[in-house]
């Protein structure tokens, strides 16, 4: 089973090392990992701007895979990387299995409150709001309910762990759990 490996690791200086390790873990579970940097099955037309060729290449990868595992560790804020979430939703819309993992064990509400600092305040109804009186989501989930819900509706799992200090982007324990779950679906 070909599995698209979505996540913000593409921005790390050792992205290729992480890709190789993820592919090794996939192979150990009888899966073939496909990383965004891999050559796409169809080369995007050269007349497109570079950013559009990246998009088209990633979309071709997603379409060529039978499943997706998304690294949903919060990225530059309290929630997952927007591009990764888009890819997860795209695969879910194709009707294929999706799995997610996060190396941030706290619930979305706790991370959002921490991110907002003093701008988060309690409401009279027991909930929380930001400085613009917009309610904070509180369902005890790993991330926004549409992310957790999409994974659950696809029959997937959202694994969370608390990695060792300094291993936020390199601990692949939860990723491996997702691989094992996918392999069990084959």
TrEMBL record:
It comes from the Bacteria. Gene3D superfamilies: 3.40.50.450. SUPFAM superfamilies: N-(deoxy)ribosyltransferase-like. This is Nucleoside 2-deoxyribosyltransferase. PANTHER family: 2'-DEOXYNUCLEOSIDE 5'-PHOSPHATE N-HYDROLASE 1 (PTHR15364).
